């Protein structure tokens, strides 16, 4: 599978190529652009080879130097989109985790079909407050970010209200191991597993469990979410990766379909969840 970060790299290369095209259309050499912008010549080289992402001010100066101010809005928009494709958690969580939950609300509200695969934790859309708070507190402690786990859990639950408004469809897959991992004390896990049994009855929700014993046609991979066919959001230990390249999205669609056909649903999924509850004593 293609590296998930390649979308960000390709987006930045495309922006650099646009800068080169603007310079050449203006009939200017790199040295001339550097002089007009008041930069060292090495900066132009870094921008044109995508080694340094341009700031908004860089773009304005470049376009002014090349008499192409009409290109400024599109380039700034493209740069900001590229910046969102691969963002390290340490940057996202500098002020805590609550803001991350809130800033994705518009994306959740406009998505018609959610396809979610989780190999490590219960999907955020299905988390109870206790489970979310325990998980987010662990993340706060590991990353050393401000501990706003309680407020972040509340924001996550508000974001998850889309699952009950009837305007969206959800196909959510979890590995059976997810049901057994102890995120929080037994009482928290019991409440979380009980909520999974409850939410399975919603007509717009299909919850599948991939059993321990499933014959693997797709190996367990990183947790990811498909928002319609527009974006894939992948969570790694170090970063949030947002994939918008159609070829990479297609890879995740194919992977999801294979995982979906390994899962059990309905009574068999309920039995797996109930068995997990029983292990809590």
Automatic annotation (TrEMBL):
Pfam family, one: HTH_31
SMART domains recorded: HTH_XRE (SM00530)
Gene3D superfamilies for the chain: lambda repressor-like DNA-binding domains
Protein name: Helix-turn-helix transcriptional regulator
Domain of life: Bacteria
Membrane-spanning intervals of the chain: none
SUPFAM superfamilies, per the entry: lambda repressor-like DNA-binding domains (SSF47413)
Stretches assigned to the HTH cro/C1-type domain: 19-72
């Amino acid at each position: 599978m293609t590296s998930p970060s390649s979308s960000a790299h390709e987006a930045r290369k495309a922006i650099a190529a646009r800068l080169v095209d603007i310079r050449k259309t203006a009939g200017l050499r790199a040295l001339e652009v550097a002089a007009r912008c008041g930069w060292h010549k090495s900066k132009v080289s870094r921008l044109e080879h995508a080694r340094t992402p341009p700031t908004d001010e860089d773009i304005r100066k470049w376009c002014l130097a090349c008499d192409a101010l009409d290109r400024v809005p599109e380039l700034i928009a493209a740069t900001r989109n590229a910046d969102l494709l691969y963002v390290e958690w340490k940057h996202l969580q500098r002020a805590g985790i609550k803001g991350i939950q809130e800033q994705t609300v518009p994306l959740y509200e406009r998505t018609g079909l959610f396809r979610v695969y989780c190999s490590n934790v219960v999907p955020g859309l299905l988390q109870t407050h206790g489970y979310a708070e325990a998980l987010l507190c662990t993340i706060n402690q590991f990353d050393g970010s401000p501990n706003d786990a309680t407020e972040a859990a509340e924001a996550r639950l508000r974001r998850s209200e889309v699952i009950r408004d009837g305007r969206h469809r959800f196909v959510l897959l979890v590995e059976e191991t997810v049901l057994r991992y102890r995120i929080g004390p037994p009482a928290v896990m019991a409440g979380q597993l009980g909520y999974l049994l409850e939410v399975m009855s919603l007509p717009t929700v299909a919850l599948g469990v991939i059993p321990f014993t499933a014959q693997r046609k797709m190996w367990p991979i990183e947790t990811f979410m498909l928002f319609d066919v527009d974006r894939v959001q992948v969570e790694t230990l170090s970063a949030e990766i947002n994939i918008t390249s159609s070829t990479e999205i297609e890879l995740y669609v194919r992977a999801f379909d294979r995982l979906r056909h390994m899962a059990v649903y309905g009574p068999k999924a309920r039995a797996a969840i109930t068995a997990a509850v029983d292990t809590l004593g």
